Amino acid sequence: MGKAIGYVRVSTIQQATEGVSLEAQERRIRAWCEAQGLVLEEVYVDAGVSGSRADNRPELQHALAACRKGCVLVFYSLSRLSRSTRDVLAILDRLRSQGADLASVTESLDTSSPSGRLVLGMMSAVGAFEREVIAERTQMATQHLQAQGRYIGGHRPTGWVVGLDGTLLQHPEEQSLVERALELRRAGMGLRTIATTLLQEGFVPRSGTRFYPEQVRRWVRTKAWRSPASNSSAAT
To answer: By CB neighbour count within 10 A (0-12 exposed, 13-18 middle, 19+ buried), where does 93 fall?
Structure first.
């Protein structure tokens, strides 16, 4: 006979005794396994734990680890397994790598069957679409901020400071530093020599005690002496 691992979860302690309680979920799981001819080896319980993330539920992690080749992870509904499509797909990938399947009692979803794999395939496509939409929106928002000369986080470009409204403002001393580095580079000087020369000429590093060739390379390559807004305008 095949083997099964059960998993039940409720979000709050109150739900443990009300609604679809832990006991009610386990009864449905046991009945489903009996109907499918599966031996239910263990039932893992997360009580009072949110389903928004899978990595913060210890008993779910134990259940996944217990799913050996040929096992089926059985749960009451997808909402009990996770409320995140991405997490469901990640769990499915892990189970497949272990040679196991998953089954939802209420959705009649069983990845050991062709129809179950079809449904999970559709879920995977929807999850990929959602990620692409989020990435596109993020990129558009970033481009909009850059076009306005707004600072979008990360390493502050040399030659600029962040104003109170989030825009990048010129830093006179650092602007002079970058312009001098560019001047030396145009004269044919090597990156390491430029770094040494800048220090000898009295320029002060933002941090540390010296300049580095890679810093000089970045200043020249990205044209850090110009604002993001002017760079964007030039590119278009």
So the answer is: exposed
